[in-house]
Inverse folding.
């Protein structure tokens, strides 16, 4: 199938505007590959330090019998998705020995949980944890001891951070190794019902906690289609997983077989073999466009409007919201996973999952087939599903959708576009996830009520001050103001107002999250309020119009005649003062909201 004209045009634009920066990046990784010494030439004292703890593999390491694989892990057992990683290193080392390789834990990264920090002060460290993860990955791989890498991470900022960090060592092959989602708990509809009852004061805290524990109940990734699971989708679309690895549950025989294959494969694609596939070559312009296409086709997390540009920059590629919006106009929505639909990622996988999504996109010329993957072929290998025949790992055709309320072919989609709109006007540029919002709510025009914190919104809701048509503006939530926290706690009260029949919308320079939906939300607004952005000049009662149909975000107020509101920040406590440099140097949300990439000239 011929590639869709819009996808071809956007890809060529990305290639052209990235020409110089991509060339510099490729030159960097070529030099790094040439400069990395063969371990046999490294000082014996240096090697002794590296080999001293590897008792079972010392003989193989001393003899340089095969590739040495660095494991970068984001294990902790506070984060359910990462709890299974605790036992991974010992298994991965066994799998490495099976093919004459060795493996060592090169280092660890932090892994905070946005679900735990939602609505709390610690959430203000969340976005910048991505930079810390990238830096930690760089430290882990800086020892020049490794011929490839296995990246253990799943959740929100963790996978993008691992990608960014690993790309600075893009001369090495790297495979991303997920651990899979937890089994399904209570229905998402029931979870939302109890949350809204609690917001209205009709359910107790004990009832709410019991409901939440019914949803988040065991090791594994949260089952809604938020940022964590969107990450796994993107790794498939970019060809950085073993095909079909994204949504196989922890502790299963198939999960272990896929983990084993990841080790065997990374050992096979190093520079010393005849199938060299360095990460920096795999993550090219087409792979970045594929990641965006997957996001749009599946209605994935709005957080990736920030993460995709940041990952692209780390590979010398320029990708912005204009590119994302233009792709959205051509890419149909083929998946309907909660919060867009009723079923979770387990239902999504059972209906055909990523194999079906990639297959139907390829059939209609809606993504790039010719990308260099970590597998044995191009992206068509990812249009299959994994299984076992005895103990042997196999792949088979997915066939038709197993549930057309969950997955539909690209020729007959849920909606003709990807549902990620760019809205612009005298209030700035922002993102609007229309795939999660009923079409009759895509346009809202109402007086605004301006807040500087999400807690103030909750107080106004409880006091009945928002019982009317209203555009709720929450400002000073951008990267430089307070680290751009997610404002997901706003969803229940705004959802209640909407259910009462009011026309309600949110405008913010903060984030909402992969779980955002139902209420029209214009997010990531840039320029941010701090520094005199337009949101800082809004006042209560100003008429604000947002429209996903026409791409408008505007006010009739005369903003130029006003002074911006004063900075309300309180940036101390909960370790936030440690991140002052990150806040001061961060670039805009559209560029990825990163201090590290901005300072590094990427």
């Amino acid at each position: 199938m011929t590639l869709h004209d819009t996808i071809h045009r956007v890809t060529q634009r990305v290639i052209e505007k990235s020409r110089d920066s991509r060339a510099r990046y490729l030159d960097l990784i070529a030099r790094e590959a040439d400069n990395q010494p063969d371990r046999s030439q490294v000082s014996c004292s240096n090697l002794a330090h590296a080999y001293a703890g590897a008792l079972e593999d010392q003989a193989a390491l001393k003899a340089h019998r095969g590739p040495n694989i660095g494991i970068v892990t984001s294990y902790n057992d506070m984060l359910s998705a990462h709890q299974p990683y605790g036992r991974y290193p010992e298994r991965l080392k066994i799998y490495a020995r099976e093919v004459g390789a060795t493996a060592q834990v090169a280092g660890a990264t932090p892994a905070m949980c946005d679900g735990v920090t939602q609505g709390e002060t610690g959430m203000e460290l969340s976005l910048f944890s991505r930079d810390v993860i990238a830096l930690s990955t760089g430290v882990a791989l800086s020892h020049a001891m490794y011929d490839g890498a296995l990246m253990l991470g799943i959740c929100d900022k963790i996978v993008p951070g691992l990608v960014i960090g690993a790309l600075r060592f893009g001369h090495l092959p790297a495979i991303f190794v997920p651990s899979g989602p937890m089994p399904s708990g209570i229905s998402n509809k029931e979870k939302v019902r109890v949350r809204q009852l609690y917001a209205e004061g009709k359910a107790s805290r004990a009832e709410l906690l019991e409901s939440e524990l019914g949803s988040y109940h065991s090791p594994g990734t949260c089952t809604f289609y938020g940022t964590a699971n969107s990450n796994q989708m993107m790794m498939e679309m970019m060809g950085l997983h073993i095909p079909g690895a994204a949504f196989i549950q922890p502790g299963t025989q198939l999960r272990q077989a896929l983990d084993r294959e990841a080790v065997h494969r990374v050992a096979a694609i190093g520079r010393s073999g005849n199938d060299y596939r360095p990460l920096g070559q795999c993550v090219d312009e087409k792979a970045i466009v594929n990641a965006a296409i997957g996001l749009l086709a599946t209605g994935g997390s709005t957080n990736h409007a920030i993460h995709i540009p940041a990952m692209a920059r780390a590979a010398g590629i320029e990708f912005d919201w204009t590119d994302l919006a233009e792709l959205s106009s051509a890419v149909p929505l083929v998946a309907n996973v909660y919060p867009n639909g009723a079923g979770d990622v387990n239902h999504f996988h059972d209906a055909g999952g990523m194999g079906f999504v990639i297959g139907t996109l390829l059939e209609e010329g809606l993504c790039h087939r010719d990308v260099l993957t970590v597998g044995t072929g191009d992206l068509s290998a990812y249009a299959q599903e994994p299984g076992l025949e005895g103990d042997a790992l196999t792949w088979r055709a997915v066939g038709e959708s197993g549930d057309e309320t969950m997955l539909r072919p690209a020729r007959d989609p849920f909606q003709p576009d990807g549902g990620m709109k760019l809205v612009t006007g005298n209030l700035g540029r922002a993102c609007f996830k229309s795939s999660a919002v009923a079409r009759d709510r895509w346009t809202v025009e109402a007086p605004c009520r301006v807040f500087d914190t999400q807690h103030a919104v909750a107080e106004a809701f409880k006091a009945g001050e928002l019982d009317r048509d209203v555009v709720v503006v929450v400002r000073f939530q951008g990267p430089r103001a307070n680290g751009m926290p997610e404002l997901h706690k706003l969803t229940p009260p705004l959802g209640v107002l909407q259910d009462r029949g009011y026309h309600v919308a949110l405008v913010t320079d903060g984030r909402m999250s992969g779980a955002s939906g139902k209420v029209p939300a214009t997010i990531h607004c840039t320029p941010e309020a701090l520094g005199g952005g337009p949101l800082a000049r809004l006042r209560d009662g100003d008429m604000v119009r947002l429209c996903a149909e026409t791409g408008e975000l505007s006010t009739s107020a005369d903003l130029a005649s006003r002074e911006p509101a004063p900075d309300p920040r309180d940036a101390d406590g909960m370790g936030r003062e440690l991140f002052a440099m990150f806040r001061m140097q961060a670039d805009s949300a559209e560029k990825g909201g990163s201090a590290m990439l901005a300072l590094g000239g990427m």
Q: What stands out?
A: The chain has two domains: 5-35+66-183+218-397, 420-569. The chain is about 35% helix and 15% strand.
